[in-house]
Design brief:
Length: 389
């Protein structure tokens, strides 16, 4: 353990294996940015400087180095990211992979669009872009290029289920996912959508009568005035006062449909990691969409590294060295984060490759057996099915 390489050497070994760096100095700077993010827990560039080893005598020189990198047109963020995420996902052929699409606003000026891989309670960025747009509402034409790129990054043979909230649900997206990408989907739709059950008059989804704790499944129905379909619909009114869920799918729906769609909320947790819950993204105050996209590369690389480290810690049975919970109470991101921070003191080994195993989570997070059982009981609804003639 005395010869354990430091964090910089380890990260250089991991990210330096990809032979697509236009300038090796770009890689060196990215690694110091990752270390700055891990050590300082913020996207404030001056806060990274104490953790950088370089020949620069003044902190301002290091800040300028980071700023030049973020504004350098030669640093093509998504092109640099693609082989990295492909390596992490290379074992997923023939497995089912859940992808989630969402947006987040920055300072009311920039709209950040991201497609992420849902993995064990967190969302790993797959592809993204930031545009100057004062609303989180965007049309298919704005993010279709991301869908096309995402399809090229996935392993051959992987079964994809695409998740998105009602702000993205439209029949153009459904048709594109099914006909062009050959992906399955679980999309939440608005209560104003018209439904055409075969042999019945059209009705708005929101006018369908449901009582608390009841789910309704409609099979082979048609949506909107364009009568797109056939599709499958899952409706549920939870026992608590939460709003009713309307989920449309290209496959037969049942209670598992709600669990599948619920995975989409992991991308909201990912945005929370980027912002107040982790890296404090909004502290960066960048005023360039391109610079924000490059900054996302550093965030994505850091997130992937920490999650992969957390996965290895749990798989090796060493979680309780850094997680104080009896059961797994921290996310894989936080477990990996704590392990890396502790490694410098305790000489813990750090991973040497990025890998997201496709096997089921060996230790799902839970506060206690009692809470897990309570949550499991709450998710069930009484069922009512409608099959058209």
């Amino acid at each position: 353990m005395e010869n354990t390489p430091d964090l910089y050497d380890t990260l250089f070994q991991i990210f330096g294996q990809y032979q697509h760096w236009a300038d090796i100095r770009h890689l060196h700077t990215l690694i110091w940015m990752i270390i700055g993010l891990i050590r300082s827990k913020t996207v404030n560039l001056p806060e990274w400087t104490p953790f950088v080893r370089s020949r620069a005598q003044y902190a301002q020189s290091t800040v300028r180095r980071f700023s030049r990198w973020l504004n350098n047109e030669r640093v093509e963020a998504t092109r640099l990211w693609e082989p990295i995420i492909q390596t992490a996902l290379q074992e997923w052929g023939q497995y089912t992979l859940y992808l989630a699409l969402d947006t987040t606003m920055l300072w009311g000026r920039f709209c950040h669009i991201r497609i992420s891989v849902i993995y064990r309670g967190r969302a790993i960025p797959l592809i993204w872009k930031t545009i100057e747009h004062r609303s989180s509402s965007i049309g298919l034409e704005t993010y279709q290029d991301l869908l096309e790129t995402a399809a090229k990054l996935l392993p051959e043979g992987v079964n994809v289920v695409f998740l998105a909230d009602r702000g993205f649900a439209d029949t153009h997206l459904m048709r594109y996912l099914q006909d062009s990408l050959h992906w399955h989907y679980r999309l939440r739709v608005k209560s104003s959508f018209y439904v055409y059950p075969r042999g019945r008059r059209r009705i708005k989804i929101g006018r369908m009568s449901l009582i608390r704790g009841q789910a309704l499944f409609l099979h082979r129905i048609y949506l909107t005035k364009q009568r797109y379909g056939p599709v499958y619909l899952a409706l549920a009114k939870p026992l608590n006062n939460a709003e009713t869920w309307y989920i449309v799918s290209d496959q037969l729906t049942d209670q598992n449909t709600f669990d599948e769609y619920g995975l989409r909320f992991d991308i909201e947790e990912s945005f929370l990691d980027d912002k107040s819950g982790g890296f404090q993204l909004e502290a960066s105050l960048f005023c360039s969409a391109d610079a924000l996209s490059r900054l996302t590369l550093a965030l994505a690389a850091t997130t992937l590294f920490l999650v992969c480290q957390g996965v290895e810690v749990v798989a090796s049975g060493k979680r309780r060295l850094v997680d104080a919970h009896w059961f797994r109470g921290n996310s894989y991101l936080k477990i990996g984060w704590k392990w890396v921070l502790r490694a410098a003191i305790a000489k813990y080994e750090i991973i040497s490759q990025l890998r997201l195993p496709p096997v089921p989570d060996p230790e799902p997070a839970k506060a206690s057996n009692r809470q897990a059982h309570k949550h499991q009981r709450k998710r069930f609804f009484s069922e009512k099915n409608f099959f058209p003639a």
